[in-house]
Amino acid sequence: MQLGDNISFAFPEIWLAISAMALLMIGVFIDSKYHRFISFGAIFSIFVALFLVNFGTASENASLFNGAFVTDGFGQFSKSVIYVAAIFAIILSDRFMERERLARFEYPVLILLSVLGMSLMVASTDLISVYMGIELQSLALYILATFNRDSRRSTEAGLKYFVLGALSSGLMLYGMSLIYGFTGATTFEAIAAGADEANRIGLIFGMVFLISGLSFKVSAAPFHMWTPDVYEGSPTPVTAFFAAAPKFAAMAIFARVLVEAFPAATDALSDWQQVIVLVSILSMVVGAFSAIAQKNIKRLMAYSSIGHMGYALMGLAAGTSQGISSVLVYMTIYLIMTIGTFACILMMRRPEGMAENISDLSGLSQTRPGLAIMFSALMFSLAGIPIFLGFFAKLYVFMAAVNAGLFVLVVVGALSSVIATYYYLRVVKIIWMDEPAPEFERDAGPGVKGVAILSTVLIVAGIVVIMPFLNIAAEAAAATLF
Amino acid sequence: MTFAGIAFWAFAISTVTFGLLVILARNPVHSVLCLITTFISVAGLFVLMGAEYLAFLLIIVYVGAVAVLFLFVVMMLDVDFAELKSGFAEYLPYGVIVGVVLLVNIGLVVAAWQLPTDPQLAQPYLTGAEMTANLEGPNNAEALGMVLYTDYIHYFQIAGMVLLVAMIGAIILTFRERKGIKKQNPGDQAARKREDAVEVVSVQTGKGI
Amino acid sequence: MEPFVVLLPLFGALLAMPIGRMVSARAAELTTIAFVLMACLIAWVLFFDVAVGHNARTIQLFTWIGSGNFIADWAVKLDTMSVIMLVVITSVSSLVHIYSVGYMHDDASRPRFFAYLSLFTFAMLTLVTADNFIQLFFGWEGVGLASYLLIGFYHHKKSANDAAIKAFVVNRVGDFGFALGIMAIFFIFGSVGFEEVFQAVRTDAVVTPFNAADGAPISELTVGFLGLELHALTLIGILLFIGAMGKSAQFFLHTWLPDAMEGPTPVSALIHAATMVTAGVFLVCRCSIIYENAPDAATLVTFIGATTAFFAATVGLLQDDIKKVIAYSTCSQLGYMFFAAGVGSYGAAMFHLFTHAFFKALLFLGAGSVIHAVHHEQDMKKMGGVRHILPFTYAMMIIGTIAITGVGFPFLYDIFHFPVGTAGFASKDAIIEAAYAAGTEGRTGAYYAFAMGLIAAVFTSFYSWRLIFLTFHGKSRAPDHVMKHPHFPPNWMLLPLAVLAFGALFAGMLGYKSFVGDKAASFWGNSIYIAGDAHAGGESHAVEAYAAEATPPVEGDHAETPAIASAEDPAGAAHDEAEEHTEGYGEEGEGHHFPLWVLYAPLLAMLIGFGTAFAHYMRGSDPLRPGLLREGGILYSFLKNKWYVDEVYRFLFLNPSRRLGRILWKIGDGRIIDGLGPDGLSGLAGFGSRLIVRLQSGYIYHYAFAMLVGIGVILLIVRLGGAQ
């Protein structure tokens, strides 16, 4: 009887599910002007989950439900980062939703449910639960993208995301069914054990489809097309959330699937390595090139995230413990940078509405020097300029790739980061050198300001403040996969 | 060839044929009807495999609900599919190329697929003896129930959450609180008091109110 | 205390600008002067302690660079050579600082000027107190930088900027050689410390260059350079000398020095006469032990030095710019120093360096006084009769001139046992005699040097007196308002002149015995090579012992020497020999025997020059008439155009490199590097960007299609690429 398993290992997820439902009920019955209570409740419940993940029985290693749910260092690290990102996403949304008349209690509930999905996803070692986790989080994200249902762009974004997401789910399911068909197993362990020369080709095909589906979730090229449209159309705090937690979760399960189900021991490494190298190169190139022509800051961030996913995949392509740890470090740092940047973008508001064009930033250094400094630091960091945290993120993945002998990848990565530097620095140039545009409103609220300042401080001082701990934690987390 | 064999081939051919017709039919209503036939054929295959619970589920849920919903949508929206397909020829070459590439690739996989050498496993359908043998144990629905809340409790719960999200989404995206419409509120009606509705006025003679 | 002699000017340099900004320019001036004066005081104390008291020592401050075998310390090396330099530098620098207060009084950016001056002083002191080649190189480049800044001090003048760049670029050539020399030293000896390197040369130690399988004694070692197998020490000597040539404006690399006169005159006095340009001489003397073991390199030094002495003197004959005359004179005198070093008389070279600092600084500052008086006019054709306005300056200039031309009384030598005459007389005669003596010993190039030295002495006398006559005598050719309202030099400017004049008159007589006379061996100690003591194995040790135990040499210590020498027998014997050799200089009856004409030749040369100048510029109505050479003649043009060196360089190097630069710029950089690199890449980026953005059409089915294409391509690649 599987129910006999000690479900205390799943307490964080159970807690999240229950609190999501409870907040939903509360939200339905209280007056809509108390929606903030639900937000606080959601933040609180994620905090509790964060605590449970790190200090409860959930922090021990266990495998439940025939491997459909495991707790290990990797999952613990990933969940912690996801939870923190979700908390920031809720904080970021607070004032914005009110002003845009979107403040509804379902928003934090949906974020909670999506976090639950991510949490289940990164804790899976079984294809079925991977798929279910992905669907749970994706479905919540589709709705969040459409949250501003009166805006055509928002609904369009949601629809595109949904349809293409369904396609990618189909591809992924097809891949999973191939894998199941050729190995007769759905758990990673059994898949790895069942791989042999006879079923190699079929397995590779299944793997390619699986990788395609996962690449869609991390928005890696050539499965990235949805990203700019969805980023642009969705309400900005939702975009901030999209760019942070789900990316991390998808990347984490990406790493777990490939490393655990197709381990180096079965020679599968070389099969998926070349696919990941290809996807990584394409993502970096697409991210670098297409961002140049962008005028909208959110679209710019979309392409930036595509490029960054390429770098993270570079670490994954290494396939080593060092590579996986570099992916975790990279994604964590990317998360800090992207949340900070979106916090800054959320401050770009004029009386007539949100300003989303890059040209709206011109001369920001004269009208809002503080914001200008934060924005510039974040752009420098995203570009990977030394002393900022973004540089060390790149450094780690490059090191991992070099140690794995993936020199072509490293060269392409270096070149595309040079190109990418151009558009990041262009933003900085517009901020500091151009004639000032009308000033932004100053009522972004303490939450957004706090998040922006915090992430700026982290990326500037991160090399001493978080880098040592992050590195150790990521290495320990990555080691549990091997 | 046993009866089971004949039935299998009949259902299989019908599934593939009507499946093709779904995408080939010009009239969308015909497409949906073919889809329903396909579902029914698949349900027959399920029965042959001894999965009668799944077969009925398919008929009730897919045929009874989903396909009918499709039919409604198709009829209500009156989409001009001919117009939608107008660009078809333009994109056809690209589509054919990609399709051929995928097909060739998948064909290679299938070609590499080695059928199990065990003759019993190689048989595509169950023999009558095997089907009857299952009658001894718990029946289909029962067997599902046995594992659904035990081995698969995890998936079951996640599926529940997925449905919950879908429900919330549907409500968020479509539900609007409209102001100024006339609607019945039983609570208000029940809580109505005489004092709110009726005023006792002593009317003096010869004067109006 | 010792580090402060170096650091005080640095403090001054750092403080000058802030003080100038916050308090006043005057405060900045006084601050720097105070710091330099303190450094000067310390330098003199050290001089008596080290040179007179024989207390040579090296103070290690810290390790500057430590990388494997490569160790460069920061040190203050105090031996006779460096303390002489310390004294010269700090004294002249102090005087120039003081002088500048008067000279620069109407300049707006005085704090900057004084900061540069002090910075220069610091760099120069770092250079001379180095105990290794790397620190020396630091100082070398530091003075180069200060020189650049000061030449271009009037940065609003294009000619000043050009001159500054020229000085810097020409020095690059020399510095490249110098740097190669240092690398060669490290390559061969595995060390850049003076003590280690010189000790190895002195003892003919077996050294193993980095790439060699086994070592060889240094005197026989050859190394490959540019495909040639060269004698290692010769190679090092030549490379170091190339550096010295650049810094000391020797022939071929001299072109920057006359142009450097664009800087303010006090700068010319300090940097381009007294101190920086002598750094090359200092380097050669510092490495004397290397040159003594590399005869070919020494011959090159002799040859270049003698040629420069002659060449610069000829060019000086026809210059009209008062500062350029002195600049060529400097160039020429530096040539003297080099050929003195080249013929092995390093003491004489240092002696001339020492005396030259006084009289040349005096001449420059005097010229500055004149320039200041006549409203910053430098053309001697527009002067004349200035002695009526500036009688004191006139007197000082006369002193400077008799010093540089070497007025003295050789016949009194027998009576006083030292040369009676001006500073230049003592030192220049010592050099010319040394060249003759080396010639009698059969040293290559020595007679050439001797001849060139004599001819140059004639010319020196001519152009120096020509300067005096054109400037101070005759009728005034300046515009009226200038002569009516000259700027009278303030006392700030006159005081340094007087001090320097004292030095110009008496430095030779005071220093003779120590520098080149009979006390030379004890005076120099181990710091330079003295003829006769080099090849004895334990000699350096003996000299050290001697230096440590000798009683103050002022009283004369002949009595003690044998006692110590007997204590260490073989070394002592060699030492006696050294004593004899040095005593032999210029002294009839012992050692070398100079014919009488050699002793009188320099004086005669001076008189010829003076007589000719007097005849042409004092007598006759037109002081501007061409003089010896007919104007427009070939020789006249040749000299007037400075031997066409600049033109030849322009033709040989400047124009080709400008053309090459143009080609590289337009085609190499513009088309190829930019075209393929930045421009091409950015073009590519723009193109790629447009392409990818066009794919981003916004239609769902396009996106879906792209995904399917992606999968198809990936599958194909996997099929073709890896999965067999």
Automatic annotation (TrEMBL), chain A:
The chain crosses the membrane at residues 12-30, 37-56, 76-93, 105-122, 128-147, 159-182, 202-226, 238-255, 275-293, 300-321, 327-348, 369-389, 395-425, 451-474. Pfam families: Proton_antipo_M. GO terms for molecular function: NADH dehydrogenase (quinone) (non-electrogenic) activity; NADH dehydrogenase (ubiquinone) activity; quinone binding. It is a multi-pass membrane protein. The keyword Transferase does not apply. Residues 124-419 form the NADH:quinone oxidoreductase/Mrp antiporter transmembrane domain. It catalyses: a quinone + NADH + 5 H(+)(in) = a quinol + NAD(+) + 4 H(+)(out). One of its GO terms (biological process) is ATP synthesis coupled electron transport. Keywords: Cell membrane, Membrane, NAD, Oxidoreductase, Quinone, Translocase, Transmembrane, Transmembrane helix, Transport, Ubiquinone. It is found in: Cell membrane; Endomembrane system; Membrane. Belongs to the complex I subunit 2 family. NDH-1 is composed of 14 different subunits. Subunits NuoA, H, J, K, L, M, N constitute the membrane sector of the complex. This is NADH-quinone oxidoreductase subunit N. It comes from Aquisalinus luteolus. The gene is nuoN.
Automatic annotation (TrEMBL), chain B:
One of its GO terms (cellular component) is plasma membrane. One of its GO terms (molecular function) is quinone binding. Its EC number is 7.1.1.-. It comes from the Bacteria. The keyword Zinc does not apply. InterPro entries: NADH_UbQ/plastoQ_OxRdtase_su6, Nuo/plastoQ_OxRdtase_6_NuoJ. It is found in: Cell membrane. The chain crosses the membrane at residues 6-25, 32-49, 55-79, 91-115, 152-175. It holds the Pfam family Oxidored_q3. The keyword rRNA-binding does not apply. Keywords: Cell membrane, Membrane, NAD, Oxidoreductase, Quinone, Transmembrane, Transmembrane helix. It is a multi-pass membrane protein. It catalyses: a quinone + NADH + 5 H(+)(in) = a quinol + NAD(+) + 4 H(+)(out). NDH-1 shuttles electrons from NADH, via FMN and iron-sulfur (Fe-S) centers, to quinones in the respiratory chain. Couples the redox reaction to proton translocation (for every two electrons transferred, four hydrogen ions are translocated across the cytoplasmic membrane), and thus conserves the redox energy in a proton gradient. Belongs to the complex I subunit 6 family. This is NADH-quinone oxidoreductase subunit J. The lineage of its organism: Bacteria, Pseudomonadati, Pseudomonadota, Alphaproteobacteria, Parvularculales.
Automatic annotation (TrEMBL), chain C:
Its main location: membrane. Residues 64-114 form the NADH-Ubiquinone oxidoreductase (complex I) chain 5 N-terminal domain. Pfam families: Proton_antipo_M, Proton_antipo_N. GO terms for cellular component: endomembrane system; membrane. Gene3D superfamilies: 1.20.5.2700. PANTHER family: NADH-UBIQUINONE OXIDOREDUCTASE CHAIN 5 (PTHR42829:SF2). This is NADH-quinone oxidoreductase subunit L. It comes from Aquisalinus luteolus.
